[in-house]
């Protein structure tokens, strides 16, 4: 007998207390800039500890691209409180610098002068650095300075046996459930881009003179009038190796098999570059992907890994542990780039994706229709009368959006029942207003504010970032909290030194061992 979404919802209602164990965490990126809004070229501040080993603050692609990381929390308020504390800590360390609170970058120096992140001389640190050198060779440094908010989400272990009554272990059910979530996320993530996209404009010098189809707003700003997120568009992103890579989310084994193929298959253009130049490593290998994380996607199945352990191997052996949502823009109106309303809606949206029917994609495991819907919404999401493709039938964005919100509503109600209050229902109601009034979306508000200000994208964003900095600096951390961040920074520096002193093999041998740790997933 076929299980239905209605049956799963009923079982969730009977076990709603387990929803109070849902965990969510955030990784929020932000460029360090000087007081004029120009990318900082100074080293990672000593007061923030080691970017390699500090669990609160690290860097992403560039030495100047901060990544602020929370732990996992059972409610949105605690999550945002930690993220806010971490921002206050960072501002207590930054000297005449700001965190750029936009997804599209600040004023960048020439490509050659954008500093690649440095993690010290340990083999682990060098692996991270060389990987980033490879990204520079493959995609250029400018594109790597785009920032976003990554949202990590996991459900209670006991909930998977409630949702999935098919045969198998808890690990099987958990992995099936998260992969089913990802299929539905792929179908419906256009809605997140409409509701939360906040990158409709950028500084004209970001394109470095490339041809484009953007409109001009003054002499120094480019935009699209109905765009929600140019960050998530194909703007300036040209990479044939990744464009031909279409991973399959019909089941974990097939997904891992295709990902394994990508990290082991040579690519001619990268072979021409080679792995060394002037005796130095410039990329980890010449394959389609150097490592698994190079695959750019709006959501990923994740599993915590040990040192030198490969993600494919960890996922194959222990299954999916959580998902990482990667398509959220930085909210330029929030001092920390995201608010609790967004967090709660994303929770309800992801639970809906988990519990709803999630049929397999076509035989190749890729759904072009969903990709096309996503692409049109990031470029034209607020266009009056915009139509999308739902299962081969044309439907208005607003109509489909309201129907999805109707379907998400019971899951928001479940979170309210589990956690108390009505905050999830209120978060859902806030999104309905955006469907009825496109001018109330973050992308529309940003464009309107930009036009009203008469400023360039750079000057407007600098002013906004300064005001957020003032807000955060005006609320210093309690002494005990500040001391705990400072101690974590000190310990991270000591741990980096320990790693550097304990390495017993040269880097070439370490890279060989790292590649050898990759195991082909079983069929």
Describe the structure.
The two termini are 27 Å apart. The chain is of the alpha+beta class and 523 residues long. It contains 18 helices and 14 strands. Helix 5 (170-188) packs across helix 11 (340-355). It has one domain: Creatine Kinase, Chain A, domain 2 (2-Layer Sandwich), CATH 3.30.590. The strands form four sheets. Strands 1, 2, 3, 4, 5, 11 and 12 form a seven-stranded antiparallel sheet that branches. A three-stranded antiparallel sheet has the order 6-8-7, with no helix packed on it. A two-stranded antiparallel ribbon has the order 9-10. The model has no long low-confidence stretch (mean pLDDT 95). Strand 7 and strand 8 form a beta hairpin.
Descriptive labels:
about 525 residues, alpha+beta, Creatine Kinase, Chain A, domain 2, seven-stranded antiparallel β-sheet, three-stranded antiparallel β-sheet, 18 helices, 14 strands
Short description:
The chain has 523 residues and is an alpha+beta fold. 45% of the residues lie in helices and 12% in strands. The protein has one domain: Creatine Kinase, Chain A, domain 2 (2-Layer Sandwich), CATH 3.30.590.20.
Q: Which value, in Å, is the CA radius of gyration?
A: 23 Å
**CATH fold descriptor:** Creatine Kinase, Chain A, domain 2
Low-confidence region ranges: none
Q: What overall form do the CA principal axes indicate?
A: globular
SS content category: alpha+beta
Global mean pLDDT: 95
Largest sheet: 7 strands, antiparallel
- Please report the total strand number as a whole number: 14
* CATH class categorisation: Alpha Beta
Assembly type of the chains comes to single chain
Q: Beta fraction of the residues?
A: 5-15%
Shape-level CATH architecture: 2-Layer Sandwich
Helix content: 40-55%
How many separate domains?
A: 1
Distance between the termini: 27 Å
Structure annotation, total helices = 18
Keywords: ATP-binding, Glutathione biosynthesis, Ligase, Nucleotide-binding
Enzyme class: ligase
Catalytic activity: L-cysteine + L-glutamate + ATP = gamma-L-glutamyl-L-cysteine + ADP + phosphate + H(+)
InterPro entries: Gln_synth/guanido_kin_cat_dom (IPR014746), Glu_cys_ligase (IPR007370), Glut_cys_ligase (IPR006334)
């Amino acid at each position: 007998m076929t299980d239905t979404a209605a049956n799963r919802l009923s079982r969730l209602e009977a076990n709603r207390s387990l929803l109070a164990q849902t965990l969510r965490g955030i990784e929020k990126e932000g460029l360090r800039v000087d007081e004029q809004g120009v990318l900082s070229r100074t080293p990672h501040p000593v007061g923030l500890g080691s970017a390699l080993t500090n669990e609160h603050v690290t860097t992403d692609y560039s030495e100047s691209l901060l990544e602020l990381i929370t732990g996992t929390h059972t409610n949105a308020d605690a999550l945002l409180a930690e993220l806010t504390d971490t921002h206050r800590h960072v501002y207590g360390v930054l000297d005449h610098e700001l965190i750029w609170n936009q997804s599209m970058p600040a004023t960048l120096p020439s490509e050659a002068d954008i500093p690649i992140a440095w993690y010290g001389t340990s083999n682990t640190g060098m692996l991270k650095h060389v990987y980033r050198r490879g990204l520079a060779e493959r995609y250029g440094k400018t594109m790597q300075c785009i920032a976003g908010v990554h949202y990590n989400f996991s459900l209670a272990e006991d909930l998977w046996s409630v949702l999935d009554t098919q045969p198998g272990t808890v690990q099987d059910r958990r992995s099936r459930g998260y992969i089913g979530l990802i299929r539905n996320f792929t179908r419906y993530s256009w809605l997140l881009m409409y509701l939360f996209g906040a990158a409709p404009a950028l500084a004209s010098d970001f394109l470095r003179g490339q041809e484009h189809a953007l409109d001009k707003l003054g002499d120094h700003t480019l935009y699209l009038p109905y765009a929600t997120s140019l960050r998530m568009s194909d703007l300036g992103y040209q990479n044939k190796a990744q464009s031909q890579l279409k991973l399959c989310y019909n089941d974990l084994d097939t997904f891992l098999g295709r990902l394994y193929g990508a990290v082991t298959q040579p690519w001619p253009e990268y072979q021409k570059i080679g792995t060394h130049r002037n005796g130095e490593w410039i990329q980890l290998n010449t394959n389609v992907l150097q490592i698994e994380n190079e695959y750019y996607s709006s959501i990923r199945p994740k599993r915590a890994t040990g040192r030198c352990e490969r993600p494919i191997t960890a996922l194959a052996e222990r299954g999916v542990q959580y998902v990482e949502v990667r398509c959220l823009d930085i909210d330029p109106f929030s001092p920390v780039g995201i608010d609790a309303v967004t967090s709660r809606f994303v929770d309800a949206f992801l639970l809906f994706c988990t519990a709803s029917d999630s049929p397999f994609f076509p035989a190749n495991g890729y759904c072009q229709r969903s990709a096309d819907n996503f692409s049109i919404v990031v470029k034209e999401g607020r266009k009056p009368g915009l139509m999308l493709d739902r299962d081969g039938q044309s439907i208005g964005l607003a109509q489909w959006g309201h129907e999805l919100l109707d379907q998400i509503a019971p899951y928001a109600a479940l979170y309210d029942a589990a956690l108390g209050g009505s905050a999830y229902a209120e978060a859902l109601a806030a999104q309905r207003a955006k469907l009825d009034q496109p001018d109330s979306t973050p992308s529309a508000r940003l464009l309107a504010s930009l036009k009203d200000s008469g400023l360039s994208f750079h000057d407007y964003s600098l002013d906004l970032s300064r005001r957020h900095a003032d807000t955060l600096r005006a609320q210093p951390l309690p002494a005990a909290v500040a001391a705990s961040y400072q101690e974590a920074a000190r310990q991270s520096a000591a741990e980096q030194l320990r790693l550097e002193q304990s390495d017993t093999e040269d880097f070439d041998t370490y890279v060989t061992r790292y590649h050898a740790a990759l195991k082909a997933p079983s069929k």
